[in-house]
Amino acid sequence: MSKFIRLVIEIFTTETYLDSMLSGFEMTIVISLGASLLGLVLGVLVAITGLWSSKSIFAKIPKAIAKVYVTVIRGTPMALQLYIMAFVVFAIRGFPLTVTAIIAFGINSGAYVSENIRAGILSVDIGQTEAGRSLGLTSSATMRKIVIPQAIKNVIPSIGNELIALIKETSIVSMIGMYDLTCAARNVGSGNNLANNLAPMTVAALFYLSVVYLLTFGIKRIERRLRESDKR
Fold first, then answer.
1. What pTM value is reported for the model?
2. Least confident interval from 70-74, 103-107, 119-123
3. Is 92 exposed, middle or buried (0-12, 13-18, 19+ CB in 10 A)?
4. pLDDT in tens, 39-56
5. Alpha carbons 173 and 199: distance in angstroms, whole number
6. Which of these, 150, 122, 133, lies nearest to 48 by C-alpha position?
7. What is the domain range of residue 177?
8. How many domains does the chain have?
9. Over the range 196-217, which residues count as b (16 or more CB within 10 Å of their CB) and which as e?
10. CATH number at residue 160
11. How far apart are CA 43 and CA 212, in angstroms?
12. Please, are residues 84 and 72 in contact by the beta-carbon 8 Å criterion?
């Protein structure tokens, strides 16, 4: 155990090892942030499209596309989606792998976020919508001013959990040749006799854990503030 701890400390104190880990960590954060923003935008659009009440053909087609999108993305592995994006859809010479990864993870996250948002909107009592309409508000105004503000409070925890899951899922980007935190840990451990990769993988786990802890702390603070506003 003492040797293992010494090796972990060595990674943090050796400039070459630490620079390698930080470089991979930076790539993980960039992909996670980009994909989460894209996923949030897609999730909102898909959720609103799926809840569109119009029965015209112009509404049915987008609703059908949104349903197929959610079904396909949620029903296939993330690794397969990433592989298809990298080596089929964006198999273009010189196309940045970082952008490919952000798009792939963003599309995947959007499918889950859309279901979370849809569930949050549907969880708001129908009486709230009826009250808004009885006051003379249009459907869009009722949704924007009454339903969505209440739905946001319901979906923040689930969207936070999706973001945490997204950060951990980015550990597979090395399969398309990207240098992320997990790949950096593997490279640091190979050929350096660092306890058969256990020490660098533990350091990588500490990086992941620190980010997840900060996100969890932030989400709980937001939830606490929202509960306080409800009491007022």
1. 0.88
2. 119-123
3. exposed
4. 999 998 898 888 776 666
5. 21
6. 122
7. 2-231
8. 1
9. ebebbbbbbeebbeebeeebee
10. 1.10.3720.10
11. 22
12. no
